[in-house]
Write a structure and sequence with these properties.
226 residues, mainly alpha, globular
């Protein structure tokens, strides 16, 4: 069987350029939809907007929107994933500036708590009503969206354990528990669990998480002491 002749180099380069240009255009269009949705959320203080509002704000077509998203739910999921991924990058970069691994971990916890709490001074909160709905209806999507943050915290916990400032354990599992603790605590920002006026602070969340991370694990088969 005769092998197919190899395409000329100029043709391959032309196709690669065309593909690359199409990909860049698609990314720009998607980003315009995301930016428009972010702007609407900032204005309304809620995700109660329509697809048509997003399309009008982006100055693109409804047909173009449905080329990239199945509907509003998928757009909101994209916003959630985008915000988490960007925050993971920013937290990793900030933590890298700390030579002390425990200080780096503390900075990461406090940054996450501040970014996850709702409020007018937090333009893109990481947690909210939509995230809670996702957690119940689409847990696998939530897990995938949180993976960048999970990896950042697992790396920081492992680094602290390697330095001997906390007990060695299971970094990924510890990171998952820290994320859940911090983000749920942030969601209750502004109302204390015991009904008093003083809300939980980022420092309190850090100290609570540190106690859990640095505590010695109980012996298998025996209950942990109080």
């Amino acid at each position: 069987m005769t092998a197919a002749p190899e395409q000329p180099a100029w043709r391959r380069r032309a196709v690669e350029r065309s593909t690359r240009a199409a990909k860049l255009r698609a990314e720009e269009r998607v980003q315009r939809f995301l930016d428009s949705a972010y702007a609407l959320i900032a204005e309304k203080g809620t995700t109660d907007f329509t697809v048509q509002e997003v399309v009008n704000r982006s100055k693109q077509s409804l047909r173009s929107f449905y080329q990239y998203f199945d509907g509003k739910h998928e757009l909101l999921l994209a916003l959630f994933e985008d915000t988490l991924a960007k925050s993971a990058d920013e937290i990793r970069e900030a933590a890298a500036s700390k030579s002390d691994p425990l200080r780096a971990l503390r900075l990461a916890v406090e940054m996450l708590h501040e970014r996850a709490r709702p409020g007018p001074d937090v333009p893109r909160p990481l947690f909210g009503g939509f995230a809670l709905q996702l957690l119940v209806k689409h847990p696998s999507q939530v897990a995938a969206a949180h993976r960048p943050l999970l990896m950042v915290f697992a790396e920081l916990i492992e680094r602290a354990a390697d330095a001997g400032v906390i007990a060695a354990g299971r970094p990924r599992r510890q990171a998952a528990l820290v994320l859940q603790t911090v983000m749920f605590a942030a969601q209750a920002h502004g109302s204390a669990a015991d009904g008093h006026a003083e809300p939980v602070t980022s420092e309190e969340v850090w100290r609570f998480c540190l106690g859990g991370i640095s505590g010695s694990p109980p012996t298998a088969g025996r209950p942990a002491t109080a």
